[in-house]
Amino acid sequence: MTEQTKRIFGIDLGTTYSSIAYVDEYGKAVIIPNAENERVTPSVVFFDDDSIVIGDVAKESSKLYPNEVVSFVKRSMGEPNFIFLHNSEEYRAEEISAYVLKKLAQDAEQYLGETVTDVVITCPAYFGINEREATRKAGEIAGFNVRHIINEPTAAAIAYGSLDSNDERIVLVYDLGGGTFDITMIDIRKNSVEVICTGGDHNLGGKDWDDRLVAHMVELFQNETGTDEDILDDPDTWQDLQLSAEKAKKILSQRPKTPISVTHGGERVKMVIGREKFEEITEDLLERTIEFTKEMLEEAKNKGYQSFDEIILVGGATRMPQIKTQIEENFSITPKVFDPDEAVAKGAAIYGWKLGLNDGLIERVSQKTNKPIERIDDISVMIESNELSAQDFKKAAQEVADQTGYTLPSIERSMLKVKNVTSKSFGVVAHTPQDDEIVFNIVLRNTTVPITLKKDFYTAVMDQKTVLIRIMESETSRVEVPLDHAVEIKTAVLNLPPNLPADLPIEITFTLNEEGRLHLTAMETTESRQVEVMVDTASVIQGEDLEKAIARSQNLVVH
Ligand code: AMP
């Protein structure tokens, strides 16, 4: 395979399960099974002395070695307070996620006999700036060239849209995974996938349904044995119940009832749990997803989208039949179940494949127009502005088709545009005239990205050396919010040139790229001098910690 057509793999890095996909020689997205011949790999890591075990074996080992097994790290991505300790070494969520990525890649390499270098990784639409950066870092620690971080619902929509690319429609993607819930409105067109609005909760997922079952099982055990002991304090029992609850939940998606047994302290209690009871004890969780959906629909109305054509269900937890029923009741539409476990990885693979073909196309267009590759951003704009003739475009596409063996229409369709929105608002701490601190939002959530905005800050005193900017993220859509409604995600320090007067405007440019990552530049306006900006991203692994993680990962074979 040549450099221009280097394969780009799609990875769904899930809270509970992960998977990897590629696009085969017929242009079809295919999941690559792992070494255990499973299509999804549990995102569970077992630190077994000096070796690291990922997946099913790790999940099973959690019963015997609860303290050596770590799972659900995705919920802690970009979270500096999350540290997993093993043999006095500290591991952050980014590094543990990197091990999951390594396992997926290693198994794929063995299956295909080809090295995995370039990847597109997915994350929930709901992820903020730090979580996205952390996801990218996880890929880098695993040794990948991360071509793009793409939202899970967008990936699912790409996989869905690729089934029939001529049909234009507005789709709601209801994505309930292991740990996160995303609801996203997407406008699917022939050559574009545009996110209109997104909402959800990154602490609501299939795991919460498991937890409710666990609590119910504990209650039944207590009633039966007469004990008031909290049996979950015992880590072995806790792990055991977690695993049985997930199994029971899955059975209840198929059957009206399931037998379960709880063993603790030498006592064993058998019980039967029915679907009705399960639905009753989890009703409020489902209701929350409906509320989030309604909120998002209201926001979409403000953007001029009054209705939608379809709801598609993705994410393993949408297999629970009550989800379909509730959606039908609330929105009078029958949702389509679309490849719940695989759509996200496949969509990421299709996006990666298109990126790869587009790279080839850009290279040919560069040769034909003598325009440097770095300056070619959008081929369709070049055609519209007559910078590239239709004939030369056809020739370039034909050459890529000949070289890759893919059809001409699929090469032409590789110029897929993905437009995204920010899922959070972000702004800075400012002072009111009464000198109270408030958050002044610069970019409101559900704004289309990439976006560049400028804001002036003022020096307070003469010859001020630095200006501190506190960057805040929040989930409101208001411009001004109290400090405690937002979280500080970064600080930036501007190092000013000497002898500036007081009250001098410093213009700060905030750019959110299409992945939702933030970049800052600053300018001292009187003499248009660039001001150095030091952004502190302490919440995401960086510096020495990052180097150490990369070095550790390089020498590591995962099992
Ligand atoms: P995902 O992150 O999309 O892989 O979704 C994983 C979640 O889906 C986990 O909480 C699984 O327990 C849940 N799940 C998978 N299959 C089923 C099923 N048949 N019924 C209910 N939940 C399921």
Describe what you observe in this structure.
The chain is an alpha+beta fold. It has a 9-stranded antiparallel beta sheet with strand order 23-27-28-29-26-24-20-21-25, with no helix packed on it. Strands 18-17-12-13-14-19-22 form a 7-stranded mixed beta sheet. Strands 1, 2, 3, 4, 10 and 11 form a 6-stranded mixed beta sheet that branches. Helix 2 (93-112) crosses helix 3. The longest helix is centred in the middle third of the chain and has 27 residues, at 343-369.
Give the SSE layout:
Elements: E1 8-12, E2 17-23, E3 29-31, E4 41-42, E5 45-48, E6 51-54, H1 56-61, E7 69-70, E8 84-86, E9 89-91, H2 93-112, E10 118-123, H3 129-141, E11 145-151, H4 152-161, E12 169-176, E13 181-188, E14 192-201, H5 206-225, H6 235-254, E15 257-264, E16 267-274, H7 275-281, H8 283-302, E17 310-314, H9 321-331, E18 336-337, H10 343-369, H11 379-384, H12 390-404, H13 408-412, E19 417-421, E20 425-431, E21 437-443, E22 448-449, E23 451-458, E24 466-474, E25 480-482, E26 486-495, E27 505-512, E28 518-524, E29 529-536, H14 543-554
Parallel strand pairs: 1-10, 10-11, 12-17, 14-19, 17-18
Antiparallel strand pairs: 1-2, 2-3, 2-4, 5-6, 5-7, 8-9, 12-13, 13-14, 15-16, 19-22, 20-21, 20-24, 21-25, 23-27, 24-26, 26-29, 27-28, 28-29
Helix pairs in contact: 2-3, 4-10, 5-6, 10-12
